[in-house]
Design a protein that fits this description.
Elements: H1 5-8, E1 9-15, H2 21-40, E2 45-52, E3 56-63, H3 68-83, H4 87-93, E4 95-98, H5 100-110, H6 122-137, H7 142-161, H8 164-167, H9 171-180, E5 190-194, H10 198-209, E6 214-218, H11 224-231, E7 234-235, H12 239-244, E8 248-251, E9 271-275, E10 292-296, H13 297-302, H14 309-333, H15 336-360, H16 365-395, H17 399-410, H18 435-446
Parallel strand pairs: 5-6, 5-8, 6-7, 8-9, 9-10
Antiparallel strand pairs: 1-3, 1-4, 2-3
Helix pairs in contact: 2-3, 3-4, 5-7, 5-14, 6-7, 6-18, 7-14, 14-16, 15-16, 16-17
Length: about 450
Amino acid sequence: MRVTMDDVLICLTASHRNASFDLLERLSIGAPTAASRLVTDSDVLDGAVVLATCNRFEAYLDIAGDDRDSAVSATVDAVAAASDLDPAEVLDSVNVLGGKDVVQHLFAVSSGLESVVVGETEISGQVRRSLEDARSNGTTTSDLERLFQEAAHTSRGVKTRTRIGAAGRSLVRLGLELASSRVTDWGRARVLLVGTGSYAATTIAALRDRGATTIQVFSPSGRAAWFAAKHDLVAAHDLRHAIAASDVVITCTSSEVPVVAPADLDDGVRRIVIDLGLPRNVDPAAAGVDGVELLDLETISIHAPIAELNAESEARAMVDDAVSRFRAQALEQSTTPALVAFRKHVFDILDDEIERAKRRSDGDTESAEQTERALRHLVGVLLHRPSVRARELGRAGRGEEFVGALDALFGVRPEPEAELPSPVVPLAERTAPDRSTRDRDDQADAS
């Protein structure tokens, strides 16, 4: 009997709710690099999709057998080694989910319901990119593909049919809102943006919404001039000089080490520093410089607003419905190999009978065709009820009864799973979205 998705998928998850920002910071660097080795070097995993963001670490695993403990242990060891962490510390900080909980969790995460700021929009793009990375690394499987694709579909539905996006705000906008209690006039504030990644574009839009006009950009990777020209900013070439000329410093780079040190900040000068990076872009000791107020992700998360209860409740109800539909479809599919084998058995018999009828027709083509139509119609009618019953039993979790009945009555058994065609379109055959579609997706992720 083909096992269901509930039997093979597990999830290891750590977030701002149950793990320190220091640990999440380390995992955000090392965990993604461990994904490909995790699958190729392990005989307990068929696939893995790793999601590492500023506030969470997640590993969605398709296990090869039923040894869940070995799969968890192998994953913890791999990501701990890649992140220079003690495996015991990682294990203590993750929750292990299985079965329905995996589906429920990913759908909620992708919809922004488990974020620091409920309803934030960046996470859906991060989930999508984690699947793309798994495809590139060859670590996804058909079950993981279906899970993540349905999560993306659910996220879009939640975003378009509820007001959950209004209930929460992005981390960028929340950070600026906290800073606004200290900035009397954004139109006069001198802002330095350190970084040119996806968060940088979001930050510029949020700053301009608040009336900021004087914005410099510095890039540790040397992309400042290009980015400044694209967004009508001023490029800064010396970080310390740019900081000295700024009232507000916002960092959002992918650097694995801090780019702003206490020595870069003048003592006694009032300045707000907003660190949106993970790993941290600003040395935490900068908070001790006289006049500097440091807002990092940990500080921002403490001030995350309570979501509008109606919007969040509506969004969670949509997620619950999507989970139920997804699991029902997965359970139905558990009987598909047996049903395919049964139909093949029946149609093989049908073809033999049609050939026998043709031989007996003595050249009467019309009579042979009438016989063939009648036989095909009869077989279609006879197969209808077993097909419906297979789906019903699958949804009820009783698919084994259908498989056993076929074996007992007809000696029909499902083909080995490895011989079944994959329901996932090979990557090389996928139709790439055109540029305008990609741009719309990126804008939606950054809004």
